[in-house]
Design goal:
- It contains 7 helices and 4 strands; from the N terminus they run ααββααββααα.
- By secondary structure, it is mainly alpha-helical.
- A hairpin with a 2-residue loop joins strand 1 and strand 2.
- The longest helix has about 80 residues.
């Protein structure tokens, strides 16, 4: 029989020190996850490189800041100037509109002063006739004849009225007048503060004179007609006092009208944006058309007297030829 070769014993696994009969687990390679691998990598810290600061860099930085501030201030001032310019134009528009209203009012007042002065001259003539005849003239009381006037599209039957100053007063109160150029502001100031205020004062004086005259007339009027005095009831002394009151009213109205003509001329110049003294003088000459025409007033009084005498004349006898 042939020899059977012995089977070589299996290679024994090397013993691990300190571990008896430990089962050796084959090592399995674990695939590395990219995210984890990145976390495990060393981080690279990137810093902005520090620049070396020099005087040149400092001045450039300061100049940039200054330029920005100047631009911001310029924009703010531009916006403010535009706002002031808009306010100025609105104020000028309002002042011109008020000037248009005052132009119409002044023309109505000038015409009404002429009516009242004509009436007072006629009354003065009637009182003179009563005195000359010793009170025997027996003249009826002369009523005022009002010219047909229109104000803002409506008939106006009142007396002289004040001019409007609301726009100017409001602008003066809130300091918007400083928005106007110097020459324009001066012209408006002259118009409102010197001329219109002076006219208003004279207008009130004329009204006071008329009130005193009316109070005197009421002493010689009937209860049913307290505004219609009976001249025949006045003595010679009464007639003289009445004549003095009538002439005081006439003078007060004449002075107020003169001032109103000045206001009218100045207002016309300002409305046309003419602020110099020469323009004001030319406008004054243009207002000469409102000057007192005493010849016209006398003719109107004569016409009234003729119409009154015709009514008072006794009727002609029947059959008279």
């Amino acid at each position: 029989m042939s020899e059977i070769e012995p089977i070589p014993p299996e290679e024994e696994a090397p013993e691990v020190a300190g571990v008896a009969d430990a089962e050796v687990v084959p090592e399995v390679e674990t695939p590395e996850i990219p995210e984890i691998a990145k976390e495990n990598e060393a981080m690279i810290d990137v810093h902005v490189p520090h620049q070396t600061h020099t005087w040149k860099d400092f001045w450039i930085h300061l100049g940039t800041i200054t330029a920005g501030l100047l631009i911001a201030i310029s924009l703010e001032q531009s916006v403010e100037k535009l706002h002031h310019l808009r306010q100025r134009h609105e104020l000028e528009t309002s002042l011109r509109a008020e000037g248009d209203v005052n132009k119409e009012r002044a023309e109505v007042d000038l015409a009404r002063y002429d009516d009242e002065m004509t009436w007072l001259l006629g009354l003065h003539e009637d009182i003179g006739k009563m005195l000359a005849t010793g009170g025997n003239a027996n003249l009826p009381y002369r009523e005022i004849r009002l010219s047909p006037l229109v104000l803002q599209g409506n008939p106006y039957t009142g007396g002289p009225m004040a001019l409007m100053t609301a726009v100017w007063d409001t602008a003066n109160a809130d300091s918007r007048l400083a928005l106007l150029p110097d020459d324009e502001a001066h012209a408006y100031s002259l118009l409102y503060h010197i001329r219109e205020e002076r006219f208003d004062a004279l207008r009130l004086l004329a009204e006071d004179a008329m009130d005193r005259q009316a109070a005197f007339e009421g002493q010689f009027a009937d209860i049913g007609a307290p505004k219609t005095p009976v001249l025949a009831r006045m003595s010679a002394a009464d007639l003289k006092e009445y004549d003095a009151l009538a002439m005081q009213s006439f003078t007060a109205m004449r002075v107020a009208k003169v001032q109103l003509r000045i206001v009218y001329a100045s207002s016309e110049a300002v409305r046309q944006e003419l602020y110099d003294s020469a323009s004001l003088y030319r406008s004054g000459r243009e207002a000469h058309r409102f000057a007192d025409d005493y010849g016209k007033m006398a003719r109107e009084v004569e016409a009234e007297d003729a119409a009154r005498d015709k009514v008072a004349a006794p009727p002609a006898e029947k059959g008279a030829r």
